[in-house]
Amino acid sequence: MNWDDLRLFLGLARNGKISIAARNLHLDATTLIRRVKRLETALNCNLFELSNKGYLLTDHGKRLVNYIEHAERHILEAKNDLTDERQELSGTVRVSASEGFGSWVLAPALAEFKQRYPAICVELVANSGFLNINKREADIAILLEKPTKGLLYTKRLTDYRLNLYMHEDLVAAHGAPTSIEQLSPFNLVSYVPDLIYAPQLNFIEESLLSPLHALKSTSINAQFQMLRNKAGVGILPHFIAKNAHELQPVLQDKINITRTFWLATHRDVRHLARVNVFLDWLNDTVQQHADIF
After folding, report:
1. In this structure, what CATH number is given to the domain that contains residue 282?
2. Region 259-288 average pLDDT
3. Do the strands 91-98 and 120-127 form a parallel or antiparallel pair, or are they unpaired?
4. What pLDDT is stored for residue 293 in this prediction?
5. Which helix (H) or strand (E) holds 132?
6. Which of 82, 113, 148 is the last residue in one of the domains?
7. pTM for this structure?
8. 167 DSSP assignment
9. Environment class of 156 (CB within 10 Å of its CB; exposed 0-12, middle 13-18, buried 19+)
């Protein structure tokens, strides 16, 4: 049994999609399939079943994942101990975050982190959705909901405020609305309902704005650009809206929403020095800029 085949098997097991797993492992798909078949031959069992959803683990495959992850944890501990990483503070930290938090909070602050820890490479994955911490697709995730499954370390990072905003020119032309009914002339800039990646973002029904005509996007940054270009009214986090002085909060007594960012890491990487210094830095950064939330 080839140990490198086990590594490739684990990459496919955590992803399930041959093309994506192969790209992440820096292989072509044909080579990855061949190596997994070789492992199956060596173990004399089937590790995957092919379905329309991708490669699904068999019971044997699930058991093998468990064995490999136990070994992986000990290997990471050995690497941390023997390379004296706590002094070197090097390596890669992959961080998964929502598009808004990643773009408007993390990205502007990362230059300062890099000055402190020049040998640590940070991979910021900031988009509409999150990587799977349990599958080890990322080392750290900033989530909109506290995860309840898996061997995870979780912590409340911060609460954040959301309000309804509109361009100051629209306020000047129509007057500041004092009721939901007075918003009827405006488009509602919001998410695409069936493509919302986290239920915490589905606050339109909560705010009684659903009857308005809509402009929709899966991207909070696209919504921000629509609003600052007078497309209508929409709900934004304060930490985004504050970057455009022309956007004014309206109906704050009626639409005042609070959500929470949660921090999650897998316990198997929690002891790594590079992960710990990033977590400490992130907590300090959020506390120092608490007013933006």
Report:
1. 3.40.190.10
2. 91
3. parallel
4. 94
5. none
6. 82
7. 0.71
8. E
9. exposed
